[in-house]
Write a structure and sequence with these properties.
By secondary structure, the chain is of the alpha+beta class. It has a single domain, classed as Oxidoreductase, molybdopterin-binding domain (Sulfite Oxidase, Chain A, domain 2), CATH 3.90.420. The protein is 15% helix and 20% strand. It contains eight helices and twelve strands. Strands 3, 4, 7, 8, 9, 11 and 12 form a seven-stranded mixed β-sheet that branches. Strands 2-1-10-5-6 form a five-stranded mixed β-sheet. Helix 1 packs across helix 4. The protein is globular, with a radius of gyration of 19 Å. The protein starts with 16 loop residues before the first helix and ends in a 13-residue tail after the last helix. The protein binds the ligand Nc1nc2c(c(=O)[nH]1)N[C@H]1C(S)=C(S)[C@@H](COP(=O)(O)O)O[C@H]1N2 and molybdenum atom. Molybdenum atom binds next to loops.
Length: 326
């Protein structure tokens, strides 16, 4: 398989066992290649030691057009131990306990629907085709907790363009892997989800430069519990939109089915933009617990419109009633 490559430059400090793994997957089907750049400007690993507790700043807009934030990173151990991934159970610790039962190699993503060139990408193709960057984003769950995560990924727009969306493409939908024997949460009698987990975006949201597909965090390969090997991250929306372990992407003319909207339409809308003024029926969205958080140090902070990304994304919703289109 022939492919175009960029000349590598990886600082020796960035060559971790995980980056070697990522690059090995990048090269498995790419004979004759040298190394690829893993991170363009990776501060996450350097800041990994900077755990919670640093004062937060809300007065300043996020620097770099929202591509990074200088708020304290949520420590790696919290990001990987406190998870929502219902395929493995509903307890926050279940994904870390059981997601290793999911096999992620081989992996491919099918892209079809309203595209001129439908097809399938192996994970190796994905890793070899797009320059990986670090993006430090806030992640705000609809359950009113939040984290700051240094993701490694690339813009979803770059992948979509490769398949040449047609003029009829107005929405993008995503599907998670569904493998009952590897996902004990999907075998649970108490689960009311119609698997596979599905999510969707409007085309302009999907093409927005803040929207990424992540393949790593903290400079490492994405842990299974965080959605390995490839997951969506849409930082201005509630976390449930950021679907994990994606195997299918489909472009469509009509607004797609989404898991949470189907399950409880009064609680979870299609847009799910973070909005402190529109409460969830069962809890307020005015503030959030920034992890790490404890009984004695709840670390409660005000929630910001569009999760602090209003400057970048408010224009997408001009003229829309955000209380109706929640
Ligand atoms: N397939 C799948 N994707 C999912 C979920 C899930 O249960 N299944 N949970 C969502 C929710 S509610 C949140 S808050 C984020 C959490 O991502 P994290 O565990 O990496 O922090 O993943 C989202 N993506
Ligand atoms: Mo969530």
């Amino acid at each position: 398989m022939s492919k175009r490559f960029q000349v590598p430059h990886i600082a020796s400090s960035e060559i971790t066992p995980e980056s070697v793994y990522l690059r090995r997957r990048q090269f498995m089907r790419a004979a004759g290649a040298a190394a690829l750049p893993l991170l363009a400007g990776g501060t996450g690993a350097a800041r990994a030691a900077q755990t919670g507790g640093a004062p937060l700043d809300f007065g300043r807009p996020a620097p770099d057009g929202g591509l990074r934030t200088d708020e304290a990173l949520t420590p790696f151990d919290d990001v990987t131990a406190y998870c929502n991934f219902y395929e493995f159970g509903t307890d926050k610790g279940d994904p870390e306990r059981y997601a290793h039962e999911m096999s992620t190699d081989p992996w491919s993503v099918q892209v079809d629907g309203e595209v001129a060139r439908p097809g399938k990408l192996n994970l190796e193709d994905i890793l070899g085709s797009f320059d990986l960057q670090e993006r430090v984003y806030r992640l705000r769950c609809v359950e009113a907790w939040s984290m700051v995560v240094p993701w490694v990924g690339f813009e979803l727009a770059a992948l979509l363009r490769r398949f040449e969306p047609t003029s009829r493409a107005r929405y993008v939908s995503f599907e998670t892997l569904y493998r009952r024997d590897e996902m004990r949460g999907t075998r649970s009698f108490t689960s009311t989800i119609d698997w596979p987990y599905r999510e969707g975006l409007r085309m302009d949201e999907a093409m927005h430069p803040l929207t990424i597909l992540a393949v790593g965090l903290y400079g490492k390969t994405l842990p299974n519990q965080n959605g390995a090997p490839v997951r969506l991250v849409v930082p201005w929306k509630y976390g449930f939109k950021s679907i994990k372990s994606i195997v299918r992407i489909r472009l469509s003319e009509k607004q797609p089915y989404t898991t949470w909207q189907a399950l409880a339409p009064h609680e979870y809308g299609f847009y799910a933009n973070v909005n402190p003024q529109v409460d969830h029926p069962r809890w307020s969205q005015a503030s959030e617990r920034r992890l790490p958080s404890s009984l004695f140090k709840p670390n409660r902070i005000p929630t910001r419109m569009f999760n602090g990304y209003a400057e970048q994304v408010a224009g997408l919703y001009k003229g829309m009633d955000l209380a109706r289109n929640y």
